[in-house]
Amino acid sequence: MYFPGTQTEVSYPHGVTAEAASVIAVSELEHGRFAILTDRTPFHPIDPRWPDQGPDQGIIVAEGLPFEVLDCVIGATDGADLFIGKDIPVRRGTAGWVFVVAHILDEPLVVGSSVDMVCDAERRHGLSAGHTACHVAALALNRVLTPRWNKEIPVDGLGSPDFDQEALDTSRIGINSAVDVYRLGKSLRKKGFNADDLYPELLTLAAEANDLLASWVEAAAPVTLEIEGPGVTDKRMWVCELPQGTQRIPCGGTHLGSLGQYEKIEISFSYDEPIGKLTMRTAATVLVA
Ligand SMILES: [Zn+2]
Hints:
The structure is a single chain. The chain is an alpha+beta fold. It has two domains: 9-119, Elongation Factor Tu (Ef-tu), domain 3 (Beta Barrel), CATH 2.40.30.130; 122-286, 2-Layer Sandwich (Threonyl-tRNA Synthetase, Chain A, domain 2), CATH 3.30.980.10. 18% of the residues lie in helices and 37% in strands. It has four helices and 17 strands. It has helices spanning 121-144, 163-167, 186-190, 202-218, and strands at 9-10, 18-28, 34-38, 40-41, 58-62, 65-69, 71-77, 82-84, 98-105, 114-119, 168-174, 177-183, 223-227, 236-242, 245-250, 262-272, 277-286. The longest helix has 24 residues, at 121-144. The chain is elongated and about 60 Å long. The chain starts with 8 loop residues before the first strand and ends with a strand. The structure holds zinc ion. Zinc ion (ZN) binds next to helix 1.
């Protein structure tokens, strides 16, 4: 089997959930599973390098028969072999390698055949709502933590010290929700963050952040993805124009087009003080169209 020399074209950044495609390679995996590569896909893959937004679910329809997509993962190939997820041995941009979207099925499909790729659009919408809310919540968090910085650090697009950038450990996007874990350790203190007496202040900070989030939802702030190219690893920037400024960060996920699509976005905190682990849970309610 020869694998493709060009990366998979992806349509999910444009909000697409269904698309016709051609099967260009099939690779047998362990446990009776197969990786299906297509020339293009609407399926958002999980990226083990930063697994914030999980894979889309859905089906691939081949010759009228639906095949369930069991998983969808970033892969990479040097033309001779295909590596999937954590097994990818090279960084993006390595000469001679291309990155692809691997759709994991328990049946092989015929190379060269035309298929219809159909994602679960409701799940996608929930993940997009969770992802947009996650990035906006981080901006509210940065803003309410501003008084706790006593040294200059890089600021976000709204001019707030970028706590999220400095302290984020893991981020997981759920349906209309997200969970972000921050590390408040020695290195953050050295950078000038004062974590003293944070615990008793958390309810107040959450209330302040939620007031900000409510004002941004009220303002129906527009959200766009700036897309440099059609390939899965082409750079994409998440841009949100808020009243206090415009945030622009690299993001490989999917999003809603406006904060006006929410009824509300709210955060809450839990704090494990002895190990310095601050967890922010974001919950969004989306307006019914
Ligand atoms: Zn993102």
